[in-house]
Design goal:
Layout: H1 5-11, H2 13-37, H3 42-45, H4 49-55, H5 59-66, H6 70-74, H7 76-96, H8 102-121, H9 126-130
Helix pairs in contact: 2-4, 2-7, 2-8, 7-8
Length: 141
Amino acid sequence: MTDSYAHRLKRDRWTGWAVALAVFAIVPPMVGIAILLVPGTHAEAKINPLYWAILAVPVPWTSALLSYRPGPLRWLRVMLLAIPALAFAVAGAAWALGVGMTTYLYMIVATVVLCLAGLWAFPRSMLARHGVPDANGDQVD
């Protein structure tokens, strides 16, 4: 029995790196949004349910991406380019609100480094070379 394209894609090292880096890259901007919107220190904010609700926003996308579903895989490269824009927007909002910028500068650096690493891995991936699997997990010709 032959392996489906989706199974081979899941075992591809570079695709795995690009997917994992995209998932990790979305975390700093979401934490930045949560810190802006939830009052108190970071330790106090983590007790607030709103903090966790904000962090849960990207969970459907990240879950589907980690499951190698075709939709999120199709948008992987775009998201690796868009997530830093979200980080810059969050930092811009923090600057406009007069919040201390040190945390947000670290957020930008972490997000940009993770996304650049993902963009470095993506062209080497089977996903970039052969495309997104169809709904049955087969390679689209």
